[in-house]
Amino acid sequence: MELAHQKCTTYKAGSPPLTRKDTLEYLAQVPGWSLKNGHISRTFTLTDASACIAFFGEIAALATEEGHFPDICMRESRYVDVSLYTYPAGGLTLNDFIIAARLNAKDTAQ
Question: What does the CA dihedral 78, 40, 100, 82 come to, rounded to 10 degrees?
Fold first, then answer.
């Protein structure tokens, strides 16, 4: 099933993060995202600060719905940096890639 159509699952304490091989396979399915310091990251470019704030709201709504929250930062009133990592797993999980794919779908819909 395509990542953007999947739902995040509750992380089970003690479950391991993805292997490097799995991480690279999933990374290939989320264009625009890159692996940095064990996190997957992407910068979204928007028109202005108001658009960034609206996008923050969309990210927050998605994260709340899925129960999986990214690190988010706005820069220069037009860039939104998003970083995903499953802290309790100590690495990346499928949930990170599901959120990345869902954010990519929002980006192409704008």
Answer: -30
Token couple for 15: 């479950």
Q: Is 90 exposed, middle or buried (0-12, 13-18, 19+ CB in 10 A)?
A: exposed
Residues 93 and 95: their CA atoms lie apart, in Å, by 5
Sequential pLDDT tens for the chain (110 residues): 699 999 999 888 888 999 999 999 999 999 999 999 999 999 999 999 999 999 999 999 999 999 999 999 999 999 999 999 999 999 999 999 999 999 999 875 55
**3-state SS assignment for residue 11:** coil
DSSP state, residue 25: H
